[in-house]
Design brief:
By secondary structure, the chain is mostly beta strands. It has one domain. The strands form two sheets. Strands 1, 2, 3, 6, 8, 10, 11, 13 and 14 form a nine-stranded antiparallel sheet that branches. It has a six-stranded antiparallel sheet with strand order 4-5-7-15-9-12, with no helix packed on it. The longest helix has 19 residues.
């Protein structure tokens, strides 16, 4: 076999190893939770539930939709969270090349009965929470991108209307870069009609060997009475509170590596001609 053929075989072998390179999925913790409740003289009266990540490492879709209409109160909370892995459902310890990440929450109180007289409520709330966590490890340097859009909207109606969202990529350590530290760390909050957002985002970079965590978390919260923010005479609002994200995270081998391979192939071919 002459050197030009050696170069071709070498390039093909290294290119194939690059194409097959990927991360390893190490942990998932996804959850959709929603509920509505009120407090009178005794314990909470509520209706709430959640959908946990029962089969970690498999594609997850969790939807929780809860409402409570009783004793002058009517509230509803909703949460949806999705994680579709690339490749699909690899299982813990399986290959990880990215994921489609989405979430949406809402909360609304349709009727409120807050007051100081006997029989009236001291606290009312409806909420939806969607929390996604994916952890993965890399044994080689890879490029990454996270592209999508997210939004949050609240209203000022005399109650507590709050939506929030967290969007982060964290290096946990395990490589030569120390850690832990944030690579992406963003929080958006809208409270009582202030701070609403609608954004497209496109972030990218390079990750070295090590362990990483992705988090996308959204919450909608409508409350009245004796709240964390003070006393509000009602929990009722005029429209549902919304916090949502739709995005895709991807990993791939850096392009400069392929350029280096091309350079190596050209060098070997040149030597053969000489």
């Amino acid at each position: 076999m002459d050197r030009s053929r050696v170069a071709i075989v070498l390039l093909a072998g290294l290119a194939a190893s690059g194409a097959n390179a990927q991360g390893t999925l190490t942990w998932t913790d996804n959850r959709a939770e929603a509920g509505a409740r009120y407090l009178e003289a005794g314990p909470y009266v509520d209706n709430w539930g959640f959908v946990p990540d029962f089969n970690r490492g498999t594609d997850y879709v969790g939807v929780e939709d809860r409402s409570l209409a009783l004793d002058g109160f009517h509230g509803r909370g909703f949460a949806h969270l999705g994680a579709t892995y690339l490749p699909s459902s690899p299982g813990l310890g399986g290959p990880f090349q990215g994921a489609i990440l989405d979430a949406c929450t809402s909360a609304e109180v349709f009727a409120s009965d807050i007051g100081s007289a006997p029989g009236q409520h001291t606290f009312e709330v409806a909420w939806g929470k969607a929390n996604g966590v994916i952890e993965f490890s890399l044994s080689t340097t890879m490029n990454w991108s996270w592209i999508g859009g997210w939004q949050g909207n609240t209203y000022n109606t005399g109650s507590v209307h709050d939506v929030s969202a967290v969007h982060e990529l964290i290096y946990l350590g395990g490589g030569s870069g120390g850690g832990p530290f944030h690579i992406v760390n963003e929080t958006r909050v809208s409270n009582n009609g202030i701070g609403d957002w609608f954004e497209y985002f496109s972030r990218s970079g390079t990750l070295g060997p090590g362990n990483y965590r992705l988090t996308w978390s959204h919450e909608s919260y409508a409350a009245g009475g004796n709240t964390f923010w003070g006393y509000y005479p009602t929990a009722m609002g005029g429209a549902p509170l919304i916090s949502c994200i739709n995005s895709e995270f991807r990993l791939w081998i850096p392009a400069p590596g392929s350029m280096a391979l091309l350079g190596l192939g050209g060098l070997l071919a040149t030597r053969r001609r000489r």
